[in-house]
Design brief:
CATH topology of the largest domain: Rossmann fold
Number of strands: 13
Helix content: 25-40%
Structural class: alpha/beta
Strand content: 5-15%
Order of helices and strands: EHEEHEEHHEHEHEHEHEHEHEHEHHH
Number of helices: 14
CATH architecture of the largest domain: 3-Layer(aba) Sandwich
Shape: globular
Largest sheet: 7 strands, parallel
């Protein structure tokens, strides 16, 4: 019997408006503690059917017409929104945070464990890049520096409210240390590694490369389009975002933008690709691990989470610079190599959901026992 069986637990998420890596973590934690309510700033029920059976509790931001569907515009009010949540009845609070959810206020007896996907990028290391690259209204752009100064001050104070941090990679562990001056344990996020092993047919590979992700400036999809325009090789890009229209016009016919696709079509895309390409720096990067679960090698920029998930010359290869030349040279090297799909699948299985849940449960159990002794 676990010490967590007879206590009250709450889960806190930044927002639940579209299903991506952070939401996958929240869903996995919800499966562990199905009776625990999920508190979040805003919730889009139509886009998040995965949480149809969960008890979702939102903040006052949910009631703001139009803006509640565009959480990016609500950052100014998110600190207040999370601070107004009453979590006083809970023994353990688990926050999944890359923005403001870690800033909830808990009573002294409550253990607060925060699974940190990253310190808020728009406030810290990517601040100047966001200002330069994103197409922002000029009037709003002038107001952003003052807003982000206040957000940085709040974010640093909010980090002190967390009792224990979990980082989603060693890369993020170092960033937590840098910006919050806090230590953290590393537990890699959950990836569905079982379904691909069951459903991948032999000899299913087709003549295209695959990229999956939001089509926004920091994902560096421009590099892919420019490189594949030059190489004439086939590329499929799955995802949507502010740069989709612009890059679609820029791309030659050998590049297909598939937008958002359902799970069955996504599975077919993974199954059919020659390799998965990741041109950006990811905190962890669930999509390349999903590709590896299908036995597909990964061609990744040598930085961030990919250095922890890809084994060079065994499950993929790296390119050292985010340039057309460096990427095309990597593809040329790749096409002269052979990879073992079975070896790649075995490696991907190390990032399974069962592993994630077991590590999360043990971490929280151990810390709760320590917390109980400390509070006596």
């Amino acid at each position: 019997m676990s010490v967590l069986d007879n206590i009250k637990i709450a889960i806190v998420a930044d927002w639940l408006t579209n299903f991506a890596g952070a939401e996958q973590v929240v869903l996995s934690i919800h499966k562990m503690f199905p009776e625990a309510p999920i508190y979040t700033s805003v919730f889009n029920e139509k886009k998040m059917p995965q949480f149809k059976d969960a008890e979702i509790k939102t903040t006052f931001l949910q009631k703001i017409p139009y803006l509640n569907k565009r959480h990016q515009l609500l950052l100014k009010w998110m600190p207040l929104a999370f601070e107004t949540l009453d979590l006083s009845e809970y023994d353990v609070v688990i926050s999944s945070s890359h923005a403001c959810s870690k800033g909830v206020i808990t009573k002294p007896q409550t253990l607060h464990v925060s699974y940190c996907h990253t310190p808020m990028r728009s406030a810290w290391d990517n601040y100047h890049e966001y200002i330069k690259k994103y197409n922002i209204n000029p009037i709003i752009k002038k107001l952003i520096p003052r807003l982000m100064t206040n957000i940085r001050i709040w974010d640093r104070l909010a980090a002190d409210r967390v009792d224990y941090f979990i980082a989603n990679s060693n890369y993020i562990k170092n960033r937590i240390k840098k910006y919050y001056r806090r230590d953290s344990a590393v537990i890699y996020p959950p990836v569905d590694t079982d379904k691909p092993a069951r459903n991948t047919p032999p000899n299913s590979e087709k003549d295209y490369y695959l990229a999956v992700g939001r089509i926004v400036p920091n994902k560096n999809m421009d590099l892919l389009v420019e490189a594949f325009n030059k190489s004439k090789k086939n590329l499929h890009i799955i995802g949507s975002g502010v740069d989709l229209k612009r890059l679609s016009k820029k791309a030659n016919k050998n590049i297909k933008f598939l937008g958002y696709i359902n799970d069955n079509n996504l599975e077919q895309e993974y199954t059919g690709c020659r390799a998965f390409i990741m041109p950006q720096i990811e905190d962890f990067g669930i999509a390349p691990v999903e590709a590896m679960a299908y036995g597909k090698p990964v061609i990744a920029f040598a930085a961030g989470g990919s250095l922890e998930t890809v084994i060079e010359h065994r499950t993929g290869i790296f390119f050292k610079e985010q340039t057309i030349k460096s990427l095309l040279e990597a593809i040329k090297r790749f096409e002269k190599m052979t990879f073992s799909p079975e070896l790649i699948r075995r490696h991907a299985s190390k990032f399974s959901e069962n592993r994630f849940q077991a590590e999360i449960k043990k971490f929280i159990e151990d810390k709760y026992k320590e917390w109980q002794r400390y509070m006596k």
